[in-house]
């Protein structure tokens, strides 16, 4: 049996408001008070891992050490079958503007356009299969850790649709749906998302009987 979280504060190792809101909603039923690394003024560690698991652990351990509290990090991304799994762990990097693309920061529409441009270049019959992966890493200040992984498969849509998601959500249609993640109500997305699948594993181990 892995170590369990008790009630109280949990640092969510993110500076992303959308991700914090989604994770907080998933943990609310368990008496967990979520606070973001951004709200605590914690620096973002350099994500030097080459897998989702490695990067999630880097973020979780950094937040736990800096705050003295248990921390939860998510590393997630979009993988496209026809692009050999790219952007994968570099999902967020594809959204970073280069010096010739405007002010520094992330432009997710630009990132979705890069993916679409590469698919178009491969030809009109290129499969549009894709999947989102989410790895959740829990870390305690003493170094103990636990990891949970979830995945959701689907296809890519163009042009992007919807305004309720974040990241690549407007371009991703989960299997069995005609709407993109960004067209789904947050409660609908949370029921089927890659993050929800990872959370189901976390909840079963951390809060189950």
TrEMBL record:
Substrate binds at residues 14-19, 76, 166-169, 189, 194-195. It comes from the Bacteria. Mg(2+) binds at residues 46, 75. Its cofactor is Mg(2+). One of its GO terms (molecular function) is metal ion binding. It catalyses: dITP + H2O = dIMP + diphosphate + H(+); XTP + H2O = XMP + diphosphate + H(+); ITP + H2O = IMP + diphosphate + H(+). The keyword Heme does not apply. Its EC number is 3.6.1.66. Keywords: Hydrolase, Magnesium, Metal-binding, Nucleotide metabolism, Nucleotide-binding. One of its GO terms (cellular component) is cytosol. Binds 1 Mg(2+) ion per subunit. One of its GO terms (biological process) is purine nucleoside triphosphate catabolic process. The active site is at 75 (proton acceptor). InterPro entries: dITP/XTP_pyrophosphatase (IPR020922), ITPase-like_fam (IPR029001), RdgB/HAM1 (IPR002637). Pyrophosphatase that catalyzes the hydrolysis of nucleoside triphosphates to their monophosphate derivatives, with a high preference for the non-canonical purine nucleotides XTP (xanthosine triphosphate), dITP (deoxyinosine triphosphate) and ITP. Seems to function as a house-cleaning enzyme that removes non-canonical purine nucleotides from the nucleotide pool, thus preventing their incorporation into DNA/RNA and avoiding chromosomal lesions. Belongs to the HAM1 NTPase family. Homodimer. This is dITP/XTP pyrophosphatase. It comes from Croceibacterium mercuriale.
